Amino acid sequence: MYRSIESNSPEQLWENACSYFKWCRDNPVQVKRTPSTGKDAGKAYLQEFPIMYTIKGLCLHCNILEEWLKDMRMAKETAPDWYMAVSKILYIIHDQNMTYAALDLFNPILVGRLHNIDKEEDTPRNILIEHVHGLPALSKNEDEILKKLESENRLFPKQE
User: Fold this and answer.
1) CA-closest candidate to residue 83, choices 67, 69, 72
2) What is the DSSP letter of 46?
3) Which helix (DSSP H) or strand (DSSP E) does residue 27 occupy?
4) Which of 32, 42, 105, 143 is the most interior residue, by most CB within 10 Å?
5) In sequence order, which ranges of 3-79 are alpha helices (DSSP H)?
């Protein structure tokens, strides 16, 4: 059956996202495990794992398109309320993914790929270096900086 959820306002989108997050928390994945060693060898049990928040899962739950979500994320100037709602939702998804990856509950490699962390940053290939003359010499250590500042009375003005 087709499920219709309306997100006609940033508030409704936020409520729908909270509903998605709650559904994920309330419905962990259950995996049947059977230890092969130890005193419980051969005894099956269910182990629960949290459901990973995803943008596609959010879109399915809220009946919205991922492209629309991206458009709202780019509308900082024209639709600031939508921008704030979408940004907060995306931050929550990102934070949950990273936290659980750090705890090794989610595969860190998968999470890195989902969040494009493994891609090389765009760095400029041609860098122009200009020499600027007439600048003071760089200090060699922190003590030298502190002495220079003290002598100029910037950091430690004399108390009278």
Assistant:
1) 72
2) E
3) none
4) 105
5) 10-26, 55-62, 66-73
**CA distances for 25 relative to 18, 58, 96, 111, angstroms:** 11, 13, 11, 18
In angstroms, rounded to a whole number, what is the distance separating the alpha carbons of residues 98 and 92?
Answer: 10
What pTM did the predictor assign? Answer: 0.64
Q: Length of the chain, please?
A: 160
Each residue's pLDDT tens digit, 35-50: 889 898 889 999 999 9
Residues 6+ apart with CB under 8 A from 91: none
Query: Which tokens in the block code for residue 31?
Result: 């995996």
Exposure b/e, 138-149, CB count within 10 A at least 16 = b: eeeeeeeeeeee
